[in-house]
Amino acid sequence: MYREGQVSIYAPNLEKYKRGSHLEPAWAPVFYNPRMRLSRDISISLINAYCIFSNRNQINIMEPLSATGIRGLRYAKESICVAKVFLNDYDTLAYKLIRKNILLNSLSEKVQVFNKEANALMYEFSEKMDIIDLDPFGSPAYFISSALRRIKHGGMICATATDLPPLLGIYPNVSWKRYFAKSLRTEFSKEIGTRILVGYIAREAIRVRKGILPLFVHATDHYIRVCMQVIDSPGYASMISKKIGYLIYCSSCLFRGIVKEIKNKKYICPICRKNIQYAGPLWIGNLWNKKFVDIVYEQYKNYSYFEKRGIKIIEYIKEEAKAPLFYYKSDIVAKKYGFKNEMSPQEIIEILRKYDENVSRTHFDPKGFRTYFHPIFISEKVRKT
Ligand SMILES: C[S@@+](CC[C@H](N)C(=O)[O-])C[C@H]1O[C@@H](n2cnc3c(N)ncnc32)[C@H](O)[C@@H]1O
Questions:
Q1: Domain identity same for 82 and 227
Q2: Which of 4, 186, 254, 323 could bridge to 370 as Cys pair (CB 3.0-4.6 Å)?
Q3: pTM exceeds cut of 0.85
């Protein structure tokens, strides 16, 4: 038995499934990863924030890939506005364990569980959902189209991706097959991967005449998690189609820019005239809604037992929510431009703040910072100090 937040659950004894000193939660007969507690803590604040932001109460949530049920059980017990949670797992052992865990937490009134294939459940279910939370092994791509069908107008879809090698540009061919997008290995791949995932969901939504409004994303530890509102409107769908584009990136001078189309695969850098690379299609709009992020922050602080690390992450996100796309890294800029001493991102930000009020840290990387300025400008200003 494990205790997490306000719930207790039966789950496999992870120690028994260790291979040597290595422990992989997916090796156990039913999946439970205590390291994902932070993601679940943040998600409870996201649910509360969603209710406040969209003025909804007594909402219903579907979590079609539940394993032990820990996530949905915590939503039922700990969030402020949840009326009903629908859990599901196609694995019979997981299904039975979820049933036991519902009883263990006296949540039979609020939580119902199914033993179906997730897409089948989302297709067949009679009610529409306020929130659908997709937390699969690997990529959520396979489940997006059914989630878009089952979500209410104005509802929120959250999706976790743990298939980082394709999204971060280590396996760009897999990214192409899974997300119809070219990923790229750079110092800011976490943001590229996040934008590929949001862009993919946006394109799936546009296809069925819906639009999305990204509310909150974070890339922490070994996963990327994105949450967005879904707007059931063809007009909104065509408007957001303008938010799909491509990144162009020069690894020689670190220039990064956005284009709507890749007309010519041999782009030349506008700054240093070297060949540049591209990634996409991806989301080029905001990844966060500032008002939503502020509510998430307040909500997270209300729970004294949540992981403290979450506060720091949301504080960085509050800073970067309106800052320029595609962060730089202080160590890479220092190396490229031959700084005598590597400065911390905070020191660089202090120098740049006079010229760019939107300069900020990023939660994606402890050495990351965001600015509109090209590193040539940054290095000039750094050298003068
Ligand atoms: C990563 S685990 C879910 C973890 C859980 N959300 C948590 O927070 O602990 C993914 C679960 O999805 C189930 N699953 C995978 N593919 C499925 C499908 N197509 N339909 C239903 N369940 C599926 C697996 O059996 C597994 O239990």
A1: yes
A2: 323
A3: yes
